[in-house]
TrEMBL record:
InterPro entries hit by this protein: FtsQ_DivIB, POTRA, POTRA_FtsQ_type
One annotated GO biological process: cell division
Taxonomic source organism: freshwater metagenome
Keywords: Cell cycle, Cell division, Cell membrane, Membrane, Transmembrane, Transmembrane helix
Taxonomic lineage from the root: unclassified sequences, metagenomes, ecological metagenomes
Any one GO cellular component localisation term in the record: plasma membrane
Protein name stated in the entry: Unannotated protein
Transmembrane segments: 51-72
Residue ranges of every copy of the POTRA domain listed in the record: 76-144
Subcellular location: Membrane
Amino acid sequence: MKRPGSKKLPGEKLQRQRLNTLAKAPRRITQRELDNSLIGRMVSSRRAKRIIASISVGSIAILLVIVAGATFSPALAIKEIYVTGTERIQPELISKALQGHIGTPLPLLDENAVAKSLASFALIESFSATAVPPNGLQVKISERQAISVVAVKGERWLYDPAGVKVAQATGSEELPEIQISEEPRNSQRYRNAIEVLMALPEDLLHQVEFIEARSKDDVQMSLRTSREQRIIWGDSSDSVLKSKVLQALMANHRKTQSVTFDVSSPNAPVVRFDNF
């Protein structure tokens, strides 16, 4: 207690200043307190991660159950099959061949199994299967397209590029006739001729009446004209350039002229008039 008129001693004043300084200074955290704090945070973080992991696993499990239920649900089973794109094949025959897939859930449809069901149809070149929810399946057919006529045992047939018989020729088709003596599918001469025909522009293709591939390097063609006009093509190389050169040569000559166009060397074409 301070008495009136009393004076502070120098030592007492210095002691009070030290106490005030210590009171205002921030308290230092001990190493033990720091370790305990870090451990607490790590424990809390691990608990949080375990909770999140549990929630994630549970969510995935629920999602898998939902997906599995939807996949195998009878509500998505195939009940109707729609066939499109056919010209020569009766769509009813294709639908009948695919009846084994009725009842299959749309998500589980195997295109390889569909292909196996359609393997007996030689005229099918390719197909696509598309789901039509909730219970429909659309099968779009691409049939083989004829590119040539081949005489086999006295009968003329239409064949596609792979050598598959498409239909019997009627005589009205403006397709080139490939002159071979063997079955097209097993004929190298047929493949050599097809390689050239596939490179021709469509308008030029329909002007070719006959084509013969004596060898891979010796392909010749005859045009549909009132007089004999022949083309010496050579091999299948530079087909685009040969086509352009040939069309330019043909434009400068009448269809009534007997002429041979030699484009086997397209950079140096030769035109021979057979009347001379």
